[in-house]
Amino acid sequence: MATKKPLILVVNDDGITAPGIKVLLEEMQHLGEVVVVAPDGPQSGMGHAITIGKPLRLDAVDIYPKVEMYKCSGTPVDCVKLAVNKVFKGRKPDLCVSGINHGLNNSINVLYSGTMSAAVEGAIEGIPSIGFSLDDFSYDANFEYCRPYVRGIAAQVLKNDLPKHSLLNVNFPNVEKLKGIKICRQAGGRWVEEFEERVDPHQREYFWLTGKFQLEDRGEDTDVFALNNGYVSVVPTQFDMTAHHVIPELNSWSFDIPKS
Amino acid sequence: MATKKPLILVVNDDGITAPGIKVLLEEMQHLGEVVVVAPDGPQSGMGHAITIGKPLRLDAVDIYPKVEMYKCSGTPVDCVKLAVNKVFKGRKPDLCVSGINHGLNNSINVLYSGTMSAAVEGAIEGIPSIGFSLDDFSYDANFEYCRPYVRGIAAQVLKNDLPKHSLLNVNFPNVEKLKGIKICRQAGGRWVEEFEERVDPHQREYFWLTGKFQLEDRGEDTDVFALNNGYVSVVPTQFDMTAHHVIPELNSWSFDIPKS
C-alpha cells in the first residue's frame, strides 16, 4: 500500500530568491511534496501584517528544477493565506515551514518577524508549523550545518502531534559545532532604539531605525541562553496573547465609570 | 504641592485624521498632558510591522487646538518607537493609549491589528498601555457612548499598577446601552478567507483579501461572548508568546538528527 507523501508549504520573509529558503525547500524535499509561496521581495520586520487596502498578485515562477513555486506581492502572512486558499484549494498541508531566516528571531523578535508570523498564521490555519532562523544576516550566510537539524525537527513534527494552537520557533547560533537542541522559553528583552537622523537632498530631516537588543532576563531556560551556549533553541509558541495570570487582579479593580 | 500631570502618548492605526483618535485625545486631556504621534495615513492590518528598509518621516502638525501632534510616515509600532526616542527624548510617558480603532480587535484580531500592536510596543517599552476599539468600521462611527469608559479605564490604569509586561485590550460593542465591563480572555477563532479574484485593465489576475470571522470557542469568559452580550470586553494581554504548557511535551520528544 503506497503511503501518500506529506504536503509541505515553504514560506519566508527574505523573499523567494533568498538563499535560506533554498536550503529549507531542499531539506523538505526529503520529507514530502514541497510547494513554495514566498514574497517577491524582502519582507523582514513585517510582523503579522496583512494587505487589506490594495490588490495582491500571485504568480507561478520557475526557479529550482521540479519545485512548484509562487511569488506573492504581499506580506509573509498574505503568502500563507493565499497558499491555503488559492494554491492548495481545499487540500490542507501537513506542515508549514518558514525561513530559514537570515537573522535571529529569538526573544521579543518573534513579534517583529515576518518569518515567525508566517508560521503563526500556519498554526492559526491548523497546520503544524515551524519557523527557522539563523544568527547571520548576510546574504552568503552558511546554512549548511543547520540542514540535519531542520530536517530532523520537521520530521519529528510530522511524526508527533504538536499540541493544538502551538508551533515551534527554532533558532540556530552562528557556530559550526552545534551542541544539540534545547527546549526553551522566549527570553525577556527589548530593542533599545537609536534612530539615525539624516538630512535628504532637499534639506528635510529623516530617520532610520537602528538599535541594540537588550536582554532583560537572567534565566538559564531561555532561547537567548541556549543560543549563547551553542545550542539550537526550540521555543513552543502560541497565539493566545491573553495574560491569564492578570485576570484575577483586574477583577479586583473598581472601574468607576464617570457619567457622560 | 503641585502634582505633575501624567504624560500620555496617543497613537492609532487609522491615521492622524481619523475621528476615533480625536475622541481618545479629548478624553485623555481630562487626565493629563497629551502628545499624539500617529501614522500620516491608514495603517490598518499592519500588525507589529516595523520599517527597516526605508527612511521614516516625523513632522509636527497643527490639527486640534493646544495639542502637540506629530504625523509619521511609518507603521503604528514605528510611531511608538519614534515617540519614545525622538519626541519624549528620555521623559517616559505614564500611559500609552491606542485607538479608538474603527473596527473590533477582539479574539485573533489582536495579532493583525496595528492599534493593538502599538499598545503592545508601548508595554514592551515599559509604559502602561491600552488599546481601544469599537465594533464599527465606518468613518462616522459613533464613539460618544465609549467616552466615559475610555476615561474611566485609563484613569484606573494610571491609578493602579498594571502587572509588568501586560497591557489591556478594550473593545466596545456597537450598542448604545453598554451593560458594563467584563474582564475576559481572548476567544479562539480565525478568519476564513475568500480572496476575491479580479482581472485588471491589462488582463492580469489579482486578488483582494476578504473573509469572515469564525468563532471556534464556546466559552462564556471570552471577549466575543462579552461583546455579543452588550459588555465592554477588557482582555489583559502579554507579549510572551511561549506556549509554556507545551515545554514538558517537547522535552519528551526524541529529535533524531540525521548525520549530515
TrEMBL record, chains A, B:
<dbReference type="GO" id="GO:0008253">
    <property type="term" value="F:5'-nucleotidase activity"/>
</dbReference>
<feature type="binding site">
    <location>
        <position position="44"/>
    </location>
    <ligand>
        <name>a divalent metal cation</name>
    </ligand>
</feature>
<dbReference type="InterPro" id="IPR030048">
    <property type="entry name" value="SurE"/>
</dbReference>
<feature type="binding site">
    <location>
        <position position="14"/>
    </location>
    <ligand>
        <name>a divalent metal cation</name>
    </ligand>
</feature>
<dbReference type="InterPro" id="IPR002828">
    <property type="entry name" value="SurE-like_Pase/nucleotidase"/>
</dbReference>
<feature type="binding site">
    <location>
        <position position="101"/>
    </location>
    <ligand>
        <name>a divalent metal cation</name>
    </ligand>
</feature>
<dbReference type="GO" id="GO:0046872">
    <property type="term" value="F:metal ion binding"/>
</dbReference>
<keyword id="KW-0479">Metal-binding</keyword>
<keyword id="KW-0547">Nucleotide-binding</keyword>
<dbReference type="Pfam" id="PF01975">
    <property type="entry name" value="SurE"/>
</dbReference>
<feature type="binding site">
    <location>
        <position position="13"/>
    </location>
    <ligand>
        <name>a divalent metal cation</name>
    </ligand>
</feature>
<feature type="domain" description="Survival protein SurE-like phosphatase/nucleotidase">
    <location>
        <begin position="8"/>
        <end position="191"/>
    </location>
</feature>
<comment type="function">
    <text>Nucleotidase that shows phosphatase activity on nucleoside 5'-monophosphates.</text>
</comment>
<comment type="similarity">
    <text>Belongs to the SurE nucleotidase family.</text>
</comment>
<protein>
    <recommendedName>
        <fullName>5'-nucleotidase SurE</fullName>
        <ecNumber>3.1.3.5</ecNumber>
    </recommendedName>
</protein>
<dbReference type="GO" id="GO:0005737">
    <property type="term" value="C:cytoplasm"/>
</dbReference>
<dbReference type="GO" id="GO:0000166">
    <property type="term" value="F:nucleotide binding"/>
</dbReference>
<keyword id="KW-0378">Hydrolase</keyword>
<keyword id="KW-0963">Cytoplasm</keyword>
<dbReference type="InterPro" id="IPR036523">
    <property type="entry name" value="SurE-like_sf"/>
</dbReference>
